[in-house]
């Protein structure tokens, strides 16, 4: 379990660093791979059966954000990361950081964001998806502690 705790501390530190530098593509990819590897470590921690692929499929089935991150980690090309300009509605300007606000003024009311593009062409904010995936990891780990396993019956 110490190995799991060390991995989680690393993941949390890199996630905090990504929040501070939300356009850092390499850091975003690192956090995504740390999330992916943490799923494997949860399996290895025990009580998950003997088929890691089945476990990963169950995790992906149960959580949309983890599904995207695990697909990105599979490197099959179904999910890719890109940087794109995203329009900002005037009503949302109060939510922007000062830096994003200044960029949007000179960029036709848009800001740059790291996005995941899924197999259907739908775009997902990478930072938001990673935040949700980390929350999903918390749920998977809580089920493990409670002894329920990582898969949901269909």
Strand order of the largest sheet: 1-2-3
Which H/E pattern describes the elements?
HHHHEHEEH
What percent of the residues sit in helical stretches (DSSP H or I)?
Answer: 55-70%
The count of DSSP E runs of length 2 or more, i.e. the number of strands, is 3
Rg, please?
A: 17 Å
Report the average pLDDT across residues.
Answer: 89
Shape summary = elongated
Low-confidence parts lasting 5 or more residues at pLDDT below 50? 149-154
C-alpha termini separation: 30 Å
Briefly note the structural class of the backbone.
alpha+beta
Structural overview:
The protein has one domain. 58% of the residues lie in helices and 12% in strands. The chain contains 6 helices and 3 strands; from the N terminus they run ααααβαββα. The longest helix has 21 residues, at 126-146.
């Amino acid at each position: 379990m110490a190995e799991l705790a060390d991995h989680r501390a690393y993941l949390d530190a890199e996630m905090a660093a990504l929040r501070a530098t939300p356009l850092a593509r390499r850091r975003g990819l690192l956090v995504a791979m740390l999330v992916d590897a943490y799923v494997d470590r949860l399996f290895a921690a025990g009580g998950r059966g003997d088929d890691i692929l089945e476990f990963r499929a169950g995790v992906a089935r149960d959580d949309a954000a983890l599904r995207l991150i695990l697909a990105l980690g599979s490197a099959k090309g179904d999910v890719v990361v890109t940087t794109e300009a995203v329009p900002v509605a005037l009503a949302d300007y109060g939510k922007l950081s000062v830096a994003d606000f200044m960029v949007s003024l000179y960029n036709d009311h848009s800001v740059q964001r790291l996005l995941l593009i899924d197999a259907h062409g739908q775009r997902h904010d990478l930072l938001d998806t990673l935040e949700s995936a980390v929350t999903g990891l918390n749920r998977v780990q809580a089920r493990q502690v409670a002894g329920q396993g990582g898969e949901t019956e269909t």
